[in-house]
Amino acid sequence: MKKGLLVLVTFLAFFSNVQAKDISLSLCEYSQEYISWLNLSESERANTSIPYMCANHEEDNSGFKPTVNMSIYSLRDKYTLEVRDQKGSRSCWAFATLASIESNMLLRKIASEHLSAGHLELKTQNSLYMPGYVNFDRDFNSGGSIELTNAYVLNNWGPILEKDLSFTTITDIIENGSYFDESIMDNKKAIIDVDDIYMLRNDSGVCSDDSIGRIKEYLINNGAMAANIYFEMATNKYEIVDSIDNLYTFKDKFLNGMYYYYNGEAYTDSYNRYVPENQIINHQVTIVGWDDNVPKESFSTMPSRDGAFIVMNSYGKTREIFPGKTFNMGDSGFYYVSYDDINICTSLVGYYNVTNKVSEYAYYYDDLGANSTVTNSGDEVYLANIFEKKSAKTEILDKVTIAVDGPGYKYTIYYANNDKLNNYKEIGSGVSEHQGYISKRFDKEIYLTKDFSIVVKLEKEGASSITVPIAIEALGSTIYNNYDVTDGVSYISSDGETWAPFKTDTYGIQNSIRVYTTSTDIEINGDEEEELELNDKATVDISNPNDTYKSNNSGDDLPDNPQTGLFDLALVAGAFILIVIVIKKTVFTKFYKI
Q1: Among candidates 130, 2, 136, which has minimal Cα distance to 471?
Q2: Are 308 and 72 in contact (CB under 8 A)?
Q3: 570 DSSP assignment
Q4: How far apart are CA 480 and CA 147, in angstroms?
Q5: How many whole angstroms separate alpha carbon 282 and alpha carbon 4?
Q6: Could you say which DSSP state residue 164 is in?
Q7: Per-residue pLDDT reduced to its tens digit, 536-563
Q8: Residues contacting residue 544 through CB under 8 Å, at least 6 positions apart
Q9: Cα(126)–Cα(142) distance, integer angstroms
Q10: Which H or E run contains 143?
Q11: Where are the alpha helices (DSSP H) in 193-268?
């Protein structure tokens, strides 16, 4: 189906804040049971237990493999590293998201050490120093979100090892004021590559049975997930249990290690983080398992069902709350959170398919990741980015990474060894299994010798519309205020033949299409480069193309009240496609992220 493009842009918190020595990578080979399950129809899959994905998954001594039907399962000890302590910082989001990467490293048998939460904090702020790249409009130690970690790994800013930039750097800066030695950031390069980012969002907050199943499936196949959890002082909507027999809420001994009652009086912890009543608090933890047998009676709020997630916190194992009075932080830093927690399913993230081979070059225009979505009428849409080659050497195409809004999108990736969006050839395809970012690696080597283009076709057979994640110049006060969208690099088409620059009269838009390459000493001439014996596409014309295409790679609050506006794109010559952009007004509640 080919229709005119009706485009609806909606702001959202998109997708919501080792040394290589002796490391050997063991890639996951699908088990035959999982391959058979993938070959089932969608309805058959929904009614069939999901087998373990990897053929080489390590079994326990009994030879038993975990499944989503198990009533109890935990990654603790085997697929998580030691519980860490964020001390007086607001860096819970950094510890939780990096713990997901670390867990996947362990599961994939990559020798692992702790990754640097301090480096992640410093690379995504702009108040201590202004980095020489597009960065978030975010103050140091102001809290964060999964979007920060997404950009951090997608841009190959990191991660690096904890031993190469210790978290004591952060605590020292907090204790000593704003002094910061920028030289500690020099020559720090990513040592881990993340191929795929699994996002799970449920705006109603409470996990559906389907979401619980998806979380369990992810934990078994890929390791730990980071999750936002919220609580509200006045109504006690959130609570944790450190064991089935030991309930802790703010009415009892403490609430999540942050706010304490003693002899009926409210106290802050030893880091003086006092939180006013009626203030919504945002915290991030790492889901490492589940226990379906935790009785609902364990929670004073009496959820509707039994069962809880096992989560790892970042407040250490014990903490001295009052002089001479030390509390255990749950079960050595691990807690239970009810399946009925009102917000644990609002925004979850998992980082998986990690490797220790980091590409040399990363091409992108969505510097900070996708921050909006576009709804396109019809059941297919073509997106394209034109890139200017970065090096004088031949480069090998390692992978293409795209953002997707959910499962069930068929994607086809095309490559053109020119900057005109013509004669492009199919190099890979697949179907998205989740919302987030997915990477496609290729069976044969593709050589880049000059400026090039990547085209992505998204389709959903029989759908009335397709939602596409994009980057758009920020409206209102947001962490994305540093977006300065480059014109003439991103295009959209309803048929893959007639292209319109992806922009409005007022605001620029960029496709979330990323290319990763590594240089080689192999010399390729033009004839050899054409050896991709794939489907040629007829030559197409770009309407109103720019003469040059250059990346804008120079150099946490959510939006309060994004502006509302209606903007018309110019008619595309010859095609007369009218693209209408509607910015919907969304009100976000500011929150602490600690």
Answers
A1: 136
A2: no
A3: P
A4: 10
A5: 42
A6: G
A7: 443 344 433 332 222 222 222 222 222 2
A8: 501, 570, 572, 573
A9: 11
A10: none
A11: 209-222
Instruction: Write the CB contacts of 253 (distance below 8 Å, at least 6 apart in sequence).
Output: 260, 261, 327
The tokens for 415 are: 């490559």
Q: What is the pLDDT of residues 178-195, one digit of tens each?
A: 788 889 999 999 999 999
Q: pLDDT, tens digit, for every residue of 385-427?
A: 999 999 999 999 999 999 999 999 999 999 999 988 888 999 9
Element (DSSP H or E) covering residue 286: strand 280-291
- The span from the CA of 396 to the CA of 447, in Å, is 5
CB 472 within 8 A of CB 485: yes
Distance of CA 191 to the CA centre of its chain: 18
Query: Residue 433: CA atoms inside 13 Å, Cβ hemisphere, count?
Result: 11
CA dihedral 381, 386, 387, 393 (to 10 degrees): 100
195-218 mean pLDDT: 89
How many whole angstroms from its chain centre is CA 173? 27
pLDDT in tens, 292-351: 988 887 776 678 888 989 999 898 888 775 566 676 777 888 888 888 877 788 889 999
Which residues, 6 or more positions from 69, have their beta carbon under 8 angstroms from its beta carbon?
49
Please state, for a pLDDT cut of 70, what percent of the chain lies above it: 66
- The sign one gets for the Cα dihedral 11, 14, 16, 18 is negative
Calculate what percentage of the chain has a pLDDT beyond 90. 46
Place of tokens 């921050």: 371
In angstroms, how far is CA 241 from the centroid of its own chain?
28
Rounded to whole angstroms, the Cα distance separating 472 from 371 reads 7
Which candidate, 269, 399, 406, 388, places its Cα nearest to that of 327?
269
> Which amino acid, one-letter code, is at 359?
S
DSSP line for 21-87: TT----PPPBPHHHHHHHTS-HHHHHTSPPPPSBTTPPP-TT-PPP-TT-SEEE-TTTSS----B-T
Query: How far is the CA of 330 from the CAs of 227, 243, 313, in angstroms?
Result: 18, 7, 9
Q: Is 278 left (phi over 0), alpha (psi -120 to 50) or beta?
A: left
The token duo for 38 is 């993938």
Residue 583 CB-half CA count within 13 A: 20
Six token digits for residue 219: 């934990």
Tokens of 334: 């691990």
CA distances from 565 to 9, 10, 505, 509 (A): 11, 12, 11, 15
Q: Which two tokens stand for residue 112?
A: 């692992």
Element (H, E) at 7: strand 7-11
